[in-house]
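hey can u check if this looks right to u? its 306 residues, i copy pasted from the old doc so theres a chance i mangled smth
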Amino acid sequence: MRVVLFANSDFALPLLQFLHNSSSHELVAVYTQPPSVSGRGLRLKHGSVGKKVQELSINLFYPEKINEPKQLRDFSDLTADIAIVAAYGQILSAELLSVPRFGFLNLHPSLLPRWRGAAPIERAIMAGDNLTGVCTIKMVEKLDSGPILAQENVPIDSKATAQNLSILLSQIGAAQILSTLDRICKLPAIPQSDLGVTYAYKIRKRETRIDWELPAEDLDRLIRGISPSPGAWCLLNGARVKILGSRVFDSQGHPGSRLKIDGESKPLIIACGKGAILISCIQREGKNPVSGEAFLQGFRGEINFR
């Protein structure tokens, strides 16, 4: 089949490569978001999807508004049998969705109908879910509500970050899409349940600041759920630092202060409202991320996060 991919994040890279390597299907074009303009020469700077598409010499489109009449004509001219969306970033019109012979599929990293929306991986970790997954659904106008063609459950490890869970789900999802394409005429489309619907709203700036008065379990989930981007942050001596890796530690002290534990080799342990967290990765403003131990080696004075 002739396939068009709509994608705009690292999550789609395994799928892009799988489709490019497929001997059964032809990836005729990729749509992504417009590149930024940078440097004195005003060069176009593509994101990870755009860069990879150019490396693979695939037709690349990056319209600012995908639903404009010209874009509809250009897309129709590709004569695609099917199109796939994987974290694209624009809402597609009903007219656009109706163009391919088999319509549009959406690769979504959650167990729908739980966590429809923009940040399903982050929200699952932040909520303390033990299980997530990846679904292939037929796209309809309503957000992430189309019938399910394929689904796979994936446990969430207690140390999982948004980044490593996204990598795992993207790899599983890429294989799932190829299998779905091979059986598209045979797979039943199972309607989503009206029960258990939750929405994974985009992470808001105010959510990213660490409140050390909260329990350690909550802060650990926040840190892992938005690591490495946008990253959970706090202040140290008036400067911003990001906490990018953590685990819950059984201790107690004044929230935000460093705890010195006998018998440990200089771990960076910070008290919370209940319990504490051991920081495994931290990033000072303008610096590269380092381990908690490396941070302590380069820091002088008392540590009290705010």
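Residues 162-182 form the longest helix (21 residues).
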